[in-house]
Amino acid sequence: MPFDPVYGYAAFFRHNMTSVTFEIPDLSATDRLGQLLAENLPDSSVVALIGTLGAGKTRLVQAVAKHTGNAEETISSPTFVLLHEYTGGQRSVYHFDAYRLESADEFRRLSPDDYFEDTGLTFVEWADKFPEVLPARHLEIQIEPLGETSRRIHLTGHGTEHESVLTLLRNGMNT
């Protein structure tokens, strides 16, 4: 999708008070979304990432972590270790991957509540496997690949603080 001078990189298909859906054409737009998340998510935010293998979940976390001052080259998928902690920036980023976990109890043994309650940003890849473990207030991001680097992103805010983030994201992606 080319850059639109009116709508920026975001082509919105649906928007209401609790969700927004748009398309991003390339990695620079993914980086822009990561920057906006880093700048606008409130402390202690939990972000549920949902998408197929290769959808771009880790790439989005890399973009957020980079814009919180963490070294981008150290950020990788936690598939085999289940959790990465990035604490070298202005904000800590905690990155869980539930792909290899078999049960919600197995996820709970990682003590996610300790991270959810911390002032950092917590991302959970494959969060749809164990939604009962997530706090009621969180941001859900569904990522659907459309092409090699283009994605459809659907964000849903659960809780007023995350609903207001959606407005900031929409406005920021349009500039």
Question: Notable features of this structure?
Answer:
8 strands, eight-stranded mixed β-sheet, alpha/beta, disordered N terminus, single chain, Rossmann fold
CATH superfamily: P-loop containing nucleotide triphosphate hydrolases
What general outline do the C-alpha atoms trace?
globular
Strand content: 25-35%
> How many separate domains?
1
**Which structural category do the helix and sheet elements fall into?**
alpha/beta
Helix content: 25-40%
- The strands making up the biggest β-sheet line up spatially as 1-2-8-7-3-6-5-4
Poorly predicted regions:
1-16
**Alpha carbon gap, first and last residue:** 16 Å
DSSP strand tally: 8
Overview of this structure, please?
By secondary structure, the chain is of the alpha/beta class. The chain has one domain (18-173): Rossmann fold, CATH 3.40.50.300. Helices cover 28% and strands 25% of the residues. It contains five helices and eight strands. It has helices spanning 27-40, 57-67, 104-108, 112-116, 160-173; strands at 14-15, 19-24, 46-51, 83-86, 93-97, 121-125, 138-145, 151-158. An eight-stranded mixed β-sheet has the order 1-2-8-7-3-6-5-4. A hairpin with a 5-residue loop joins β7 and β8 (151-158). α1 (27-40) packs across α2 and α1 (27-40) packs across α5 (160-173). It is globular and about 40 Å long. The chain starts with 13 loop residues before the first strand and ends with a helix. Residues 1-16 have low confidence and may be disordered.
